[in-house]
Amino acid sequence: MAQRTSGRLLGLTATASLMVALDATVVTTALARIRLDLSATMEQLEWTVNAYGLGFAVLLMTGAALGDRFGRRRMFVGGLGLFTLASAACAAAPGIGWLIAARAVQGCGSALVMPLAMALLSNGFPPERRARALGVFAGVTGLAVVAGPVVGGIVTEGLAWQWIFWLNVPIGLAVIPLVLRYVPESRGGGASFDLGGVLLVTGGALGLVWGLVRADGSGWDAFEVDGALAAGALLFAAFVAWELRVREPMVPMRLLRSRGFAAGNAAGLLMYAALYGSLFFMAQFLQTVLGAGPMTAGLQLVPWTATVTVIAPAAGALVNRVGARPLTAAGLALQGVGMVWIGLVAGPSTSYPELVAPMVVAGAGVSMAMPAAQTAVINSVAAREIGKASGVFNALRQLAAVLGVAVAAAVFTARGGYGTAETFSGGFGPALVLTGALSLAGAVAGLFLPGPDRTARTSPAPPVPRRAPEPSR
After folding, report:
1. CB burial string 244-266: b at 16+ within 10 A, e below
2. Which of 149, 125, 148, 128 is nearest to 137 (CA)?
3. What is the pLDDT of residues 12-41, one digit of tens each?
4. CB 407 within 8 Å of CB 275
5. Alpha helix segments (H runs only) across 380-420
6. Hey, where are the domains in the chain?
7. 412: phi > 0 → left, psi -120 to 50 → alpha, else beta; which?
8. In 247-388, which ranges are E strands?
9. CB under 8 Å to 396, separation ≥6 — which residues?
10. Interhelix angle for 386-415 vs 259-288, to 10°?
């Protein structure tokens, strides 16, 4: 009975994660059709992608905090409902402005779903089985991220771009009652709600994400960009100061003293920045330079995506045996090698078969690192703080996605452009080399993770006061 319950929990949380992670990238191969149908400008197309990431990243920490305070299952179901309604609004959008607004609401729903799915899953499995479950969860999530362009291309050419959103509706409506029936409720530690922390971290994330999103269009030296980044940094500094003083903090700063928490989040940030940055340009390279259509380009990414389904679950099962450090460091090193390899060989005369081997290397590497880094972060905290750790990890992941695309785009525009296959290749190569360097930096961060004997330890908790001995009679 216990295994059946655990299986249902894993299946439901992984399905929800699949939906919200898929929508982060599924639009990329549908943008050309959206531009024609809704008469959208290039900037509006960019916001069609970025509005989702903006809502997602800004409210992730808030979503985790709401789950800890009011019930993880309750807020998880609320997030699923909001995401499902917003998906229907995206599909029925009469204009590009409506679509952008609905995408932002989709991101807000995702900010509740993703961290609470991870928290519910982690809370429902004992430490000795948690790594394997998180490996499957990471494999499904990672597959959704890199398979988004594949699904988007197939659905757009086979049906219409609206169906990439309509498909979420029956899935969401089916999952919600199953979650209410089979997933037990859980909460985090503490009875109060850190409203000050929520407001500060939400404002800080909004400032940083807004600045990064607008940097490519307005320029890094624009007042809007610099002001948003500065405001975000100041609000995050204020958040840290607040959390050090509040009685029941949203994110206890003592968690940073845990090597697993600090190094795991650093490795995760660099890993996802490299992944999203390379994925953004890889799909475009296959279409712009190699002449593939949306569906063909998506299918050509399969050597990259297929590794996730095989390697991530196996890596998750190995974490408790060998520790998170070797899997994270080796995996990110492989991803870095693969990305640099592609950046060095890609050009107008490159044939697709030349890209298969480095895509497999990069995919295998990130598939090893995903569950390892995630497990290191979750296992570094006490059970009552899993929601907080999940919120931090996923918030950094979304910030990394924006950061990776923004930095890679800055390198791309400095060295190339969209004019011809030659100019695109001139920017694409350096951009991919940069994403490889980010991944190699993540491998260095992974070397600071604790060994296998310390991976499953919890973070230091506040000391429990000893009861004074009673006087002898």
Report:
1. eeeeebbbbeebeebbbbbbbbb
2. 125
3. 888 888 888 787 778 877 776 787 788 877
4. no
5. 386-415
6. 1-183, 195-249, 254-451
7. alpha
8. none
9. 265, 268, 269, 272
10. 40
Evaluate if residue 142 carries a pLDDT over 80. no
Global pTM reads 0.75
The two tokens of residue 117 are 């799915």
**CA torsion through residues 328, 333, 334, 335, sign:** positive
CA pair distance 391, 151, nearest whole angstrom: 27
Enter the tokens of residue 311: 């390697």
In degrees rounded to 5, what are phi and psi of residue 391? -65, -45
Residue 365 has phi, psi (to 5 degrees) of: -65, -50
- pLDDT tens figures, 369-385: 988 888 888 888 777 77
Q: Tokens 């996730």, residue?
A: 308
Nearest of 406, 29, 393, 78 to residue 211 by alpha carbon: 406
Residue ranges in 346-466 assigned as alpha helix (H) = 353-379, 386-415, 421-446
Q: Which fold has domain 1-183?
A: Growth Hormone; Chain: A; (1.20.1250)
Spatial CB neighbours of 457, under 8 Å, sequence gap ≥ 6: 260, 379, 380, 450
* Fold agreement between 1-183 and 254-451: yes
- Spatial distance between the Cα atoms of 61 and 111, rounded to a whole number of angstroms: 8
CATH number 1.10.10.10 is the correct assignment for the domain at 254-451: no
